[in-house]
Write a structure and sequence with these properties.
Elements: H1 9-39, H2 51-63, E1 76-77, E2 80-81, H3 88-99, H4 104-129, H5 133-144, H6 147-153, H7 158-175, H8 182-196, H9 199-216, H10 224-246, H11 250-269, H12 274-287, H13 292-304, H14 309-328, H15 339-355, H16 365-388, H17 394-413, H18 419-435
Antiparallel strand pairs: 1-2
Helix pairs in contact: 1-4, 2-3, 3-4, 4-5, 4-7, 5-15, 7-8, 8-9, 8-10, 9-14, 10-11, 13-14, 13-15, 14-15, 16-17, 17-18
Amino acid sequence: MNRQTFISGRSESRIRKTQRWIERMWMFGLLLAALLLFCINLDSPPLLNGGEQTINQVAGELSTTPLASWQWFYPTFGDKSYVEDPPLLYWLIALAYKTGNDSTLITRLPTALLSALSVPLFYGIGREIFPSRQNALFSSFIYLTVLPVVQYGRLAIADSAVLCFVMLMMVCLLRSRRDLRWSLTAGIGFALICLTQGIGLGLLMLAIGLIFIAWDTPRLLRSGYWWLGWILGIIPGLVWYTLPWIEGQAFLTANLIQESLQPFWHSVKIPRTLTGYYDYLLEFLKFSVPWLLFASYGLGLAWTHRNWGWAKFVLVWTGVYGGAVCLIGSPLSAYSLPIYPALALAGGAQLAAVWNSPRSQSYPRLWVLGLSLMSLGAIAATVYFLLEASGSLLPVVSSSLALTFAIAAILVARRDLQFIFILFWGMYVSLLLLMTSPHWIVS
């Protein structure tokens, strides 16, 4: 007797297990690629004057004190309380000093590891908002090969470490739309942001998340369990900020909050000129090559499909944070790095749309022109480096970029989708070559 075979629950379970295995493999692969890019050659050049050396001294003092000391809650710089930044980064570096020597490599290693971890977390954001894995992968490859993210992610500064916690908060916020328990982890992510960069950035990211939820899933704002998860997650940060009041040292909290909000206050007090904004714009364009070329079209795509969840998320993040960056006045300031994940999502959406479009559809001429100009600029940089920096890897790096942009421009003109992979691979190799040189801290 013949029996017809139907898809059973067991086969569906196998499909789900296969999908989970594939997701884990992609996340593991992205993590390995990020670890190589963020951690190679960390000990060269030496720690930068100012930020890194100050963090090195504060963390060094912490590493010599008992863990139960009050100094671990509120680090000191010499004989005075250090209230420039919250203490989480100092804690991590001080613990690293207890397990290894006080060296440039050990000082930068915690932030480099956190920056590398932000890449698979960012992939998780893409999987939450995009219906296709392809969009999430394209966005993750863009995020991994953005120069400011890689460059600052290798430095021992709070600006880079906080990106990991921003990704954690956002991916958990998105998951809480279908499972309220994830709001607890989102609240923890918010607390970690406040303990790393300050309450100013934490409130800004929280505002982005709440505006998106109000637009996309407003029912969550009426859920007591959702808010309870946030409140429980925020407790660690809340305790640290309120503990000085209990101990009779309220000046610490006042100074910390003032330092955290100082960039916004200064942006109001200091008038910005058109020349200043023009210089900032040039810097932003220079350090966003080549992905801003595609992210700009991705923002247009998001506006066209603004009824979709991913488009709402990208528009809210880019609009709110972009406005804050303009208010602060410097696209490469401490508060500017979290704008790049939003642009990476927009660029990934645009590249995925191109990949799935009919092969006969032409690409924007601006892409060919932009990539060609980038190639010419990289060639000019190669000539300059050969004359002024002979013996270094900089001519090799600029030559790699020139070749990448030239091939990509030709493929775009021919409507060949392989230009996407050429850009991803070429940018990754070029950045890897740059990071192996002592000149990776560029200006």
